[in-house]
Amino acid sequence: MRAVRSPLPPAEPILRPPRRALFLALLVLLGAVLSLPAVELEAARKLFISGAYAEAIAAAREGQRGQEGEPQWPQLLGEALAAVGRYPEARDVLLRGAAESAADLPIRLVLHRALLETGAVAEAAALLTEMDRLGGTRQWAYRTPEQRVALGRVALMVGGDPKRVMELFFDPVKKETPEFRDAYLANGELALAKNDFALAARSFQAAAKKFSKDPDVWFGVARAYAPSDSEATDEALEKALEYNPNHTGAHLLRADHQIDSEHYAEAAESVAAALKVNPNLAAAHAYRAVLAHLRDDEAAEKTARAAASKLWKKNPEVPHLIGRKLSQKYRFAEGAARQREALAFAPDFLPAKGQLANDLLRLGGQDDEAWALAEEVTKADPYDVVAFNLVSLREAIAHFRTLESDHFLVKMEPREADIYGADVLALLERAHRTLTGKYGLTLREKTIVEIFPDQKDFAIRTFGLPGGAGYLGVCFGRVITANSPAARPGSPSSWEAVLWHEFCHVVTLTATKNKMPRWLSEGLSVYEERQARGSWGEQMKPRYRAMILGEDLTPVSELSAAFLHPKTPLHLGFAYYESSLVVEWLMAGWGIEKMKRLLADLGRGLPIHSALATHFAPLEKLDADFATHARQLARNVGPKLDWTKPDRRQVGSEAAVEKFIAENPDNFEALMVQADRLLDAGRWVAAKGPLKKVIERYPEQHQADSAYARLARVHRELQETAEETAVLVRLADLAADATEAFQRLMELAVARQDWPAVLDYAARYHAVDPLRPEPHWLEAQAHEATGQRPAAITAYRTLLQLGPADPAEVHYRLARLLHAEGDPAAKREVLLALEEAPRFREAHALLLEIVGDPR
Questions:
Q1: What pLDDT was estimated at residue 8?
Q2: What is the band of 568 on the pLDDT scale with cuts at 50, 70, 90?
Q3: Where a domain ends, among 572, 603, 632?
Q4: What is the β-pairing status of strands 447-452 and 479-483?
Q5: 3-class DSSP assignment, residue 262
Q6: What is the extent of the structural domain holding 78?
Q7: Count of other CB atoms within 10 angstroms of residue 651
Q8: Domain limit, last residue, from 617, 632, 647
Q9: Strand order in the sheet with 473-475
Q10: Total domain count for the chain?
Q11: Would the pLDDT of 2 be above 60?
Q12: Are residues 426 and 516 in the same domain?
């Protein structure tokens, strides 16, 4: 299995080779630690950390007057002035302070950022060169924790090896001066810079144990968890803002998440809170530009861009941030354009290169440039996890085969392409005919579909990092990525349903120019799954029924947030299901033409709430009416059953269950518990009672392990074949992933020589897992028995790729069919059969028939 890049490979030089010897010599001289700053300085810095910036500025000015020549005072003053957006003033203060402290690195680091914020890019570059020189020539001057951490930061800025920096600077400071917070922050920030969020989380969580009221530490925790755990991120942001209400980074990270959840008004408030502290904060104005773009307000976007670039005209971080957020909204073309703009400002700006690589891969058709960019990032920064994983992925999928049809390019692992690639193309073309016709859309380019047999490769291609185990497929617009059945052993699901779902995204995203809320996009795709086949897509189940009638039903106006902050994987599945119910309800009440007009208006930039009100009803009414509809739908599920959940003690033993059922004869859970106990005891006849009762009162059970599956087992154990078959047929029609039922139905059909039924259930099995040999074996027999020789030949050849239990028999049957077709390949197949089983008499006889009997 291909390894995923660790952020800390074997050590390399810290700085560029000319500086290596000088920096290594520093280790000998880093012995004594100077005294900590005066108490007054500590108090002033606490004011700064807590967000009392005006007080910190006043204290720093006073401190400067009392302790001239102490660089930490102008450094603090410069930081505080920068925090409130007074960048030119901060720059001037820091320039004077740095001039008075010829070798101090911490103040120069702050000055470096102030120079950039005021657009003095050349001066900042010269200062970085100076800091590099100082680090290599004045080792004796850098002994305090502040100086040593600053030394490590400089080493990173000039290309030093991250592992060495941590080992030589940050980690020793943490060990020798455990109360020095900056070492912890530097460690965590380094991990974040390399996209190693797990390491960042460990670093910041360790810091949080020591500095439990430090807002910067909690901000680091929030950033570390932002890609994976929204609840942990929100909790950390709450703490950061509790300890520093003016923490602009925390306000903007909150805005970032609010944009993701389509809470745009709240995001604007968070951005405004940051700008109230720092009216010149470029990132805040960049977020304003994002919000303006998302509401199609070109004038406001232009104004926000101008404000973001007011002091630093060619700040690459501004277009990079805007582009990243647009790409997260599936505006990949706009996002890629912003990254190109960032690279025009700064050709070596690696974040923009990495983001552009991902954008181009998601746009499709520009893979060569994307891979080249990923290579450039990896060469410049071997520790960037996302870039390294992309480069490794390219090597892993280089052997994929491309299959082509009228409207699709499908990339698959060659063996899988041979086995079910033709079925993939046929399914996709059927989806294309159905959905483009239904929504009145013409797709001008072929859709690219990539199917991965390794879940890790799928995750890296889709998200940049391993993870995303709950995802079966993802659509980016023109590009679809999906897991193959091989990527999810033990978790059967219909790959046909997944591809149908994802292609529906292609249609609806194209129709809206990617300007649709997630709930509507997912709701339409799940709805169209069920339209294609009743057993596909999310279905009502007992747990969903309870969630609808409980506290988990989300208003239509807030549905997109349900995807961003699901409490559990079950809640995420419920978000898909509820969204599909909304779509189903809208379609039933207003019709497809209204939905098409809604999509068209979204494509023109109309906000979703306005579009819903225009074509359906005011949002408040939609919220209320849909809630009524959904709850009535839930109440109609098993209306004669008692859905109350019994206490554990009430069903904890056989006697307790019997007593509870005597008093509550229609309780769903108690009946199922009783049935399972009877099954475990082998009391087959007795188990029929509760199972039949549940099925009678709740016939629409779509789970593969439902009461139908249990009742089928009962009939099989009692050798009641007709009854077993009837129950399994019903189960197979309700559950698209009931592979055990499909297999058993094939076996029963073979026994009665019902070959059409064998082919039907073999096809259903292949739609879930085409990589199992048994269904292909039975399918081949069915084709052979009905005289469909070409289809039987194909099935036997496929079976041979899957490792059949009796390869000699398969080779023999294939040879027999090929010989009947006059195909000379029959001789090779019969010889392979004899190689497997040298005494195989029928194969010997067939070989003589093929070559002619010399006797």
A1: 32
A2: confident
A3: 632
A4: parallel
A5: coil
A6: 38-141
A7: 22
A8: 632
A9: 401-404, 408-412, 447-452, 479-483, 473-475
A10: 3
A11: no
A12: yes
